[in-house]
Amino acid sequence: MSINIHNSYEQFYKGTGPIKSYGSANEGRKDKVVKYEFNTIDEKGNKVMDKMSREETLQAMNDICSQYGDDVIVEFSGDGMAKLVEDGKGYLDRPLTDEEAAAKAAKQAEFDSEVVQLENTHRIIIPNRQTNAKLYNSLAGADEEVVKAANGIIKNYFLPAKVSGMSEDERKSMIAFGMEEAKYLAENFLKQEHSGEFLSAMETIAKYGINGSVAEDGTVTYHIEKGLNVVGQIDDMDILKEKAPDLYREINELNQSIINHKAGEKYGVKFLELHKRAERVLNATNEKGETNSEAAMKEYKKWEEEVEETKLPDIFKDTKYSTMQTFFESLQNQSQLSNDWINNSMARFMKWLNK
After folding, report:
1. First-to-last CA distance in the chain?
2. How far apart are CA 171 and CA 181, in angstroms?
3. 10 Å Cβ neighbour count for 288?
4. Is the pLDDT at 5 greater than 50, yes or no?
């Protein structure tokens, strides 16, 4: 059997839940997610509905989203919906509110920039999605001073914008010093169940730093891949941005026109045309017989392996983490970094922790 989907949304409602946020509190922040699951069969294998077209999918999402306020994000899933709304696989997202569109653009801008480098930055976005999530999951529930210190370590020691006047050995010593401060945080400020994940994330970020390329003027460039989306794949839009920038622009323009309700009645035809063109790009094969999607995943795995195989410098020996005084004393005279540099860095560390 099939049903009139537009009159029966309630049966697809799956409940609500809180949204875990790692950013500072701000006006208009989303704090609840509402979930709807559109499946063609129920748990007993009985048919519930036919698959919707893309146009029907958009209509259903619009109808449902209009029922909720600005503090709610609506999450859609299920095989009854068009590929348009499969997590991380669609070429266009559901129509967003102006606020959601602005938030999405801001988030993308953060990921596109290598690292936020402002001195007063409280939260840094790590360009790799998985590393970023691991870092802030490990800091969940930690005092703000600890989060500030962790971000300070990343910005100043692991991924600084410039390292003018430093030799390569000094730069590596600086990264090693940052890892010692991270270990001090894990030992003294984080719960045991979070400390391992925190150190794992910080070690990965330190490896990003070690692999950075330094220009003559001291500017450092870091190769940090965005990572996989929620279904474990390279984002199609990232591939299109590289392989077919004009098509990528057209898709974004249509998406924006849908957001602004200026797409017209026949935007579905345009969407299908762009969808087919995108499929051809993604499925195009190289000289090795790999599709662009397969090649992108292969390149990501290669980069990931290179990061994992990167060795961090083993410079500081027998570091003591019990107290700030013993920690400070055990770090002195163990690297090419001067005592003045270490003194200044320890003073900054204590300032972050308000010690």
Report:
1. 68
2. 16
3. 8
4. no
Residues 326 and 320: beta-carbon distance below 8 Å: yes
User: Which helix (H) or strand (E) element contains residue 157?
Assistant: none
Q: Is the full-model pTM beyond 0.85?
A: no
**Burial of 250 from C-beta contacts in 10 A (0-12 / 13-18 / 19+):** middle
pLDDT of 132 reads: 93
Give DSSP secondary structure letters for 77-139: E-TTS-GGGSTTT-SSPPP--HHHHHHHHHHHHHHHSS----TT-SSPPPSSHHHHHHHHHHT
- Six token digits for residue 159: 């991924």
pLDDT in tens, 16-72: 766 544 333 333 344 567 787 888 887 777 887 888 776 677 667 766 776 666 566
**Residue 162: closest CA among 116, 214, 112, 228:** 214
Contact between residue 156 and residue 206 where contact means Cβ atoms under 8 Å apart: no
335's CB contacts (< 8 A; 6+ apart) are 173, 176, 177, 315, 316
C-alpha 355/C-alpha 348 separation (Å) is 10
Q: Give 214's strand partners.
A: 220
Facing residues of 213 across strands? 221
Query: Bridge partners of 74?
Result: 34
Q: Please, what is the angle between helix 267-283 and helix 236-243, to 10°?
A: 80
List Cα–Cα distances, 260 to 52, 192, 251, in angstroms. 23, 48, 14
Amino acid 38 reads F
Here the tokens at position 340 are: 């003045």
pLDDT, residue 106, reads 57
Q: How far is CA 45 from CA 10, 37, 39, 41, 322, in A?
A: 20, 15, 10, 5, 59
Lowest mean pLDDT among 7-11, 39-43, 152-156, 292-296: 7-11
> With contact defined as beta carbons under 8 Å apart, do 186 and 142 qualify?
no
